[in-house]
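DATA SHEET
Item: assembly model
Revision: 1
Owner: S.N.
Input lines:
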Amino acid sequence: MATTFVAGLLDATIRAGTPLLLAALGELIAERSGVLNLGVEGMMLVGALSGFATTVVTGNPYLGFLVGTLGGAAMGLIHAFLCVTLKSDQVISGVMLTLLGTGLTTYFGQAWVSAQIDGFQKVAIPVIGPELRSLPVIGEAFFANTPIDYLAMVLVPVVWYFLFRTNLGLEITAVGEDPETADTMGVPVFRLRYLCVLLGGAFAGAAGAHLSLAYSKLWVTGMVAGRGWIAIALVIFANWRPVRALLGAYFFGGLDALALRSQGLDIAVGAGFPLAETVNGVLGFITHPQIIGMFPYVATILVLVYITQEALEQRIGAPSALLSAYSRELD
Amino acid sequence: MGESDPILEMRGVTKTFPGVVANDDISFSVNRGEIHGLLGENGAGKSTLMKVLYGLYSADDGEILLNGEPLALESPQDAIEAGIGMVHQHFKLIPRLSVVENVILGYREPAEAVAEVGGSGPLGSLVGGLASRFSFGTEGPAKRVRALAGEYGLDIDPTAKVWELDIGQQQRVEILKALYRDVDLLILDEPTAVLTPNEARQMFQTLRRLVDQGLTIIFITHKLSEVTEITDRVTVLRDGVRVDTVETDAYSQSELAELMVGREVLFSVAKDAVPVGEEVLAVQGLRARSDRNVEAVTGIDLTVRAGEIVGVAGVSGNGQRELAECLAGVRDPTAGHIAVNGTNLARAGPRAFVDQGVSYVPEDRHRYGCATSLNLTRNAISKEYRDETFGRRGLLDYRVADEYAETLVEEYDVRGVTDVAEITAGELSGGNLQKLILARELHRDPDLLVANQPTRGVDVGAIEFLRQAIIEQRSEGTGVLFFSEDLDEIFDVADRVLVMYEGEIVHETTPDEADRERIGLEMTGGDAATATGGGSP
Amino acid sequence: MNLDVDLRAREDVPAWLAYGTPIFTVVAALLVGGVALVALGVDPLAAYEHMFVNTATTEFGIVQTLIRSVPLVLAGLAVYVPLKAGLWNIGAQGQLYMGAVAGTWIGVNVGLPLPVLIPLLLVGAGVLGAVWGGIPGYLRAKYGVNEIIVTLMMSFVGVQLTSYLVRGPMRGGEGNFPVSALLPSEATLPTIFGSLHAGIFVAALGAIAIYLLFDRLRLGYEITYVGANPDAAEQSGMNTFRIYVFVLALGGVLAGLAGAIEIAGVQGRLRPDFSPGYGFTAIPIALLGRNGVPQVTLAGVFFALLEVGGSSMEIAFNVPAALIDVIQALIILFLITAEFFKRYRVSIEIQRGQRAGQAAEEGA
């Protein structure tokens, strides 16, 4: 019984983690260039709805996924224009885009609420997949997923390589640390920030499309349900590093899946255990779905406090120029 | 030095900013393979001139010839491509990245493996473009950096993160950035400003090695000792104009000081004799660090009495700012005592100093002296608002505050003010803003006034007023300690003169007894004993 | 053809731009919203007329607007106060929830007569809200931790905590529904006119109190100064640490009050999702009213009008009230864009063909 539970949990973890991972990767890229995007939630909703609607109309989930990604990118473009060109406050612009995305998708989404699609099905990895799929516990979880889940996993090393092993990646890091110095060294600051914010929006749109095309295969108002905010928290939790974002996404996804399953769970220690009543009380408390739901946020606060300590600021921590608009001081 | 073989010629370069002519028709040339000094006080125009050369500013007039060819520079990239490199006073380094990463930033070399693929032609340039953006090898550049470092005697680990390095090493990274890009001419902007004397000596060795390898160097400084130690020739600037270009060996330090500082006297201010009272400020053994965590105040003892004005002469950057901030409670000293009216206030925080009757005029008036977006009333009361006249028990009556501001504006001749509640501090001109700040600090009849460069960046009319105001305040019994780069100002205003250099007081005198040339020397690190001899090679 | 865009910082803002901006942005937002209405086959003029006229001229509309404006104005002030000190309070939603929790708990569990119980539960709400805001304030003051993220995180923690409490320790409804017990009549705000409850007084008092804070008190002066230049404030002897903690705690108090009033005056019991985003709507309200408490109040009432009108429009035209969220977002979008044009003067020159070279010289 326990193995079925764990197997089911793992399977759900991967699927729950994918949208978080996609959105976090995008937000990570944007923040590394110095722009905070608080509009992820709205962009994910736009991606989810536009992807879903396209799939309903064309019957092609891949096309839907593409449109969803583009929808997110379009909103990212607005954010880039406001923050980089108009040098507006990044917080205001981001919150506004979340409001806009939420409002637009609720408004236009009414018509699509009862539509149905086939969406993305779970597939096994070619060649070795079908065999591995039958492995106990981890078989279904790791070797039978929708194409987008695999895409998200593959994107992690791709983003890692882009940020840490290319000249552009080096320049993006420089822009996020000290745009003035980067500018002096000939780095195209504005263009790079545009690129990164656009990518952030695109990834968020893709994450939303995954939700409506692979995770739930339907559209419901507000279906992103706060995952966009978790993705933002996840970037901090992962210390702006793609591999840690992967781990963090599955960790948070796992918590989400656990929360759904924990109602039936009854974890308790035997009566002989010292302080059994108190321990059981605490266990009962922390396995409560809503309490589990709090963990990502509390964890993020703790991580943030930790990395803001000055001694560590140089080694880890937020890009130094995050949230600052850059304008070249002319003569 | 032999025949003149100019690698660089600047002809008739002029650059103005609103209200000030920074470079006025400057012409000079630099010979190949020499270390050419650019000497002048702060504000003489040295930095501006070099920023024009480096493509950061565009000159209003004049031309630049490199190896006989005219240069059109629109950005630092153009300068680098022409072979001109610059090591800035404030390093342009990203602490979180490694040495190699900082050096290659923006250079966009493709990884070695990809570099040869594709050849020339459109496919080649496509591949090249992609490769330069999407590939990256640090092994190749790291090897090159290590080789360069070895060649020029710069001891640096290419893989170290910049935040791990000390200032001297960071400066070497800056030099490596230029060398990596194959420059022929290297400009160094006040390079020893952040170094200890030991590190400075090491840097000079580095410079000599660079020159041996064929580089030409322009060395910007205001320190005479450096000019005589390291330069072959030196161009002296004063107030935006080139005074002369001379062979360093042929001139004594005091002669150079004279060229640099000049003999102009601006005003003579009337001063009554005022009886001097109790000690309001007694400083003992004070030490403090700068923001870059380098020791900036290296052991200061001084006293100021009620009714006396003590002027501290010195070029800005020798610890004046850190000392002034300690005396206003804004910075915590690392050692020593600060007694205001007998009470030790070191490390007590700004509020304690304000309450003890200390007033402070900071060097950077926009950043620390006022809130530019707020109106004059709110700026005027920022030191006195806790007083009962403005309201009791936590209340603040803005009408009283407005009247207070109006009084300040009137008494201190702040111009351009129609309504103190409407005009913001940011809308005032430099001189008027400074008058308002000084008004705010003096009107409360402080026991001690600490002022750092109080007349810098202020128009002539306001300067006279400000100096007069300070002098009058001493009749009220205020003790004044002020820092200034302007010797004329010090002599006009102060009762006692101290000279500050590299964090210490190196000389004390009075205006009557002072030898101006000696002071000029002490201010710039010249050695009085060797003043009349020549420089040493 | 050559496009030459020239940006120049303005010296001062022309009057028509400064005062006209709020009006322009609202009109522009309504126009774009009109497009969305047309997309769903609705006549925008009719819809807007219903939305505004109906709401502003009927007794029901006015009362509902006033009721709705209570939490919006309070939450708007909860963002406004820290903003004056230069801090962002993105967590008003969580503070609001915590206030509701405290108010509900006290209302349900403490047996006291109404004149004592109501103030008590309001105080409790304020205290818990203050804690919820004070924690990020402390972290920011002491460690420099970014308050945007911390208030945001704590907001979600607060919502989750409420959800947990209402399903567990504080569950009280019949059956298994995740709601709290119904507040007794002693804990219910008395109504003064129709369904308009006494919470309107709290909101009004709150607005007046904050106005006085910034108009009459030394503390308000210090807050403003710290927000304008924290370095200069430190040098003048002001205690930025205490101010940072104070403004976020005060913001928490205001938001907490909003939450408690919503339960005690309107909903009667605590539900897990009782607040439709007041804490986030508060941000645009504070922005629109950035120049002063009266402006924040006006913005809050205006947004309340929009929301009430939106609900009635939804019923009358079968159009989702979410259009209001869109319009609110668009108002902010146009506001930020207008900010840019207030700061810079843009001149665009279009040159054709051969004259490009000459014109470029002149335009440079």
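QC remark: Confidence is low (pLDDT under 50) at residues 354-364 of chain C.
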